[in-house]
Amino acid sequence: MATEGQALQLVALLENELIRRRGKIDVHNDYYRGKHRLKFASEEFAKFHGARYRDFSDNWTQVVADSPVERLTVTGFLASGETSADKDLWEVWQVNGLDSDSQLGFLGAVTGARCFVLVWGDPDDPDMPVVTFEDASQSIVAYEPGSRTRRRAALKRWQDGNEDYATLYLPDEVWKFCRPLAQQDKSPQMADVDEELKTWRPREMGDEPNPQPNPMGLVPMVELPNKPMLVDEPMSDVQGVIAMQDAINLLWAQLFTAADYASFPQRVILGAEPPTIPKLNAAGEVVGKQLVDIQKFAVDRVMMFSGKDTKIAEWQAANLAMYTGIIEVAVGHLAAQTRTPQHYLIGKMANLSADALLAAETGLVQRVDEKKLWFGQGLREVARLIALAKGDEAKARALRAGRVLWADSESRSQAQMSDALLKLKQLGFPFEWLALKFGLTPTEVGDVLAMKEAELKMDPVNELSRQLIGTSDPAAPAEEEPAPEEEATV
User: Fold this and answer.
1) Taking CA 19 as the corner, what is the angle to CA 234 and CA 202, rounded to the nearest 5 degrees?
2) For a 10 Å CB count at each end of the chain, is N or C smaller?
3) How far is it, in rounded angstroms, from Cα 80 to Cα 387?
């Protein structure tokens, strides 16, 4: 049991680390949303054109982040020693809306380097724990020294209205704190007051105790890291895209500027004075000369000069295709570095065969499979926590050593998938395994099996077999007739 002072020290420690991580997470989220700053530009270009392209971005970051997430779909959980997916656990997954929220969590991990899953029991419905995916900007997990899996504590911090809230999760108890939202613009007289407001205080919970016991005996928050490292923090998929994304944005800005100034042939007039027109007074008398407005000639596209030495020369328009070629090369580099198929980015597709497309997506498939390995380890622990929240310790042990069922990482047509499954069926694989491989959820597999059984009962051949055999179950073996007694020999 921790004292209030120890709990507050742990909250302060975790909050400082959370604040340190927040900067990178915000930058990566901004790049995913297309909020980019113009970089790598010269001082002169930035001075004259920086504000012009402030809101422009050719956002490839979003495509890179979305490409693996769209293939990360959980279809069930299989406990150790079991041959069928756990239906009760899948019900918890669906009731909590994790079919969709898991996609948000995986996207948060791909962009922010990690996401978290929180599991807690519902006192009103003990058989249905509450499971939520949490963003890396609001949650953090602390581990035991020298371990990457044994969780020591977890903190969730968020803002609601004019209050900051924090919940500290320990293996044996849960602390809840709050404080007024610190204001940024305060007078010097309010500085001391602000320091007092920054102090966390126990949250008033009414009849609910604070701290309250943790019946699971484990920290109920699990981290799902993206690209974990042995000696450093996990990496965001966006992190390696930012530099090339900035370069692509700059090339587009320079292309637009060149198109504005040098996309048409430019002409120059030599050996002639600037054209003038008479300047008249109110009575219509000529009182002088004034220069002709050059913009008028740009609109009328007609200009007259006098003088025997007048000449007109021109220089060719800028080659804008040079910029588009460089941009295409930059996008190709981005595709190779992130293992994103080129047809996701370039948008050019010839008459490619199915095998060629499959080969083009090999890098992305491997990238998705790696994420299934990293996220699957955390999701197994989530399944264990769900069982503990329901009070089933035996299932919790089985799920801890089980595995997560995922949809196929490869993008295949129905014909390709059906042909592959038919060959596996001929090798002896059971129908239920094939249905899961096809991408059906455990619930859908159960429905298909029930429909298949109903079809067998409606088949007249099977009905006749039942009548002849004398049983209502077409799958039941026929009773063996007793062997006739041997006739006694005379």
Assistant:
1) 120
2) C
3) 14
Average pLDDT over residues 120-134: 92
**CA dist., res. 407 & res. 414, Å (int):** 14
Q: Specify the residue for token string 């900051």.
A: 164
Please state whether beta strands 311-315 and 266-270 pair in parallel, antiparallel, or not at all (unpaired): antiparallel
**Torsional sign, CA 245, 250, 251, 256:** positive
Give SS3 for 404.
strand
- Amino acid at position 311, single letter: K
pLDDT, tens digit (0-9, with 9 covering 90-100), for 324-357:
899 989 998 888 889 988 788 776 655 667 777 7
Residue whose C-alpha is closest to residue 80's, from 436, 373, 394 = 394
Is pTM beyond 0.90 here? no
pLDDT digits (tens, 9 = 90+) for 378-410: 999 999 999 999 999 999 999 999 999 998 888
Return d(Cα 61, Cα 331) in angstroms, integer: 11
Angle, helices 242-262/321-338, rounded to nearest 10 degrees: 170
Helix (H) or strand (E) holding 347: none
The first and second tokens of residue 11, run together, are: 């909250």
**Cβ–Cβ under 8 Å, residues 41 and 250:** yes
